[in-house]
Amino acid sequence: MRRIQIKLINQIEKKRIAAVEHESGQAPRRFIFLRAALVCLGLTLLGLPASGKTFRFDYQRELEISSGATLSVDNSVGVITIRGREGSGRLTIEAVKTIKAVDEAAARRIAEYIELKLSSKSGQAKIETILTDAGKQRRSFWDRLVGVDNDWFVSVDYIISAPRDIDILIENNQGEITVSGFTGNLEVLASSSSLVISDISGEVLVDITSGEVSLSDLNGDVEITTTSAAISVSSLTGDLTVHGGSGDLSADYVAGNVTIVQTSGDVTLTELQGDARLKTTSGVITVAQEQGALDVFTHTGKVVVNTELFSDLEYSIETLSGEISFSIPDNAGARIKLSTLSGEIDTRGLPLEVESFSRREISGVIGAGGVPVRLKTGSGDIRLAWY
Q: Global pTM?
């Protein structure tokens, strides 16, 4: 912006000087001086660092909300903390406007353009941060030239206490979001955030572009959609569904079924109690499963599985390039099919009754047979062992 401002000024002065030169045949001394001054000013502005101080403006509000209603929080940039409490009928809201500006007077002017809008009707309570265009303020020519009013930053933080039996919808572009202690459903839409969710009994739906997601002590189903976020889940009694682009994912104790589809990143699942279906492009996959079937496909990456084989459904692992390590209890029975185009097959002394054998594939039965196990890799070793 500053380069454009200086360029425009120089263009205007060049036209004025050219007009005078055309009439007199030479450039007047005052225009030569002005041109030199503008050049110096331009150099100064191009090297002018962003400056400003930080000012805080606190607000306390209350809002009526009925049992079972939906609380909607729509913010742009800032920290949002929502905690559940016993009781009903009222929200308590603490809000802080944090503004970076050149001085307090400028900060107060900017604060006037940030509206905290609260409304409650028809089973819905809504909290909105409305940011109007601060550039609409009347500014002096020098302010516009130097750009001091552009050196500001605004964020709004919320701490909200609400009845436990409500649903919650949060929209926030940037900033940490913490929600805990509710029996209703929760939906979060965010761009770049750190998200911490705990003690939620209802369904949880998260749509986040990037950042970190930490979920714990949840009783309902969870669905997460992300482009690039690190995800951690612990103690979930419902189903877990993740649609991801990149980022590591870990889940410890999921009682329901797990479905993960993502492009890249390591996946670590422990104490799984349900069926698991994983599809990735690259990354290491590690699974420790107590119950449920397993279906894994990856283009590139190592797959390590410890499972009890406690299901009547098929256990299938396939990778185009990568090692497969599959461990089962010493009392397990299964029908086994192992195949690799380029790699070795190692059964580590398991009592495998071979039914068919070739350089690239082995089929047989362990114990009394039973559940089918299929392990396949295009390029990589396969290891089948007790644990």
A: 0.82
Rounded to whole angstroms, the Cα distance separating 265 from 282 reads: 7
Rounded to whole angstroms, the Cα distance separating 345 from 302 reads 15
Model confidence pLDDT, tens digit, residues 60-86: 999 999 989 999 999 989 999 999 999
Q: Which two tokens stand for residue 207?
A: 């749509």
DSSP state of 77: B
| Six-digit token string for 191 | 């761009």
3-state secondary structure 88-118: CEEEEEEEEEEEEECCHHHHHHHHCCEEEEE
Find residue 300's DSSP bridge partners. 282, 321
Residue 385 half-sphere exposure toward CB, CA atoms < 13 A:
10
Alpha carbons 301 and 280: distance in angstroms, whole number? 9
* CB neighbour list of residue 154: distance below 8 Å, 6 or more residues apart: 77, 97, 98, 99, 100, 110, 114, 131
Residue 54: both structure tokens together:
């930080």
Residue type, 236: L
Other C-beta atoms closer than 10 Å to the C-beta of 355 total 12
Contacts of 342 (CB under 8 A, 6+ apart): 378, 379, 380
Instruction: Give domain limits for the chain.
Output: 2-46, 50-175, 239-387
**Beta bridge mates, 228:** 210, 246
Distance between CA atoms of residues 360 and 238, nearest Å = 40
Give yes or no for a contact between 367 and 386, defined as CB atoms under 8 angstroms apart.
no
Low-confidence ranges of the chain (pLDDT < 50): 1-50, 134-149
State both tokens at 323: 């090692």
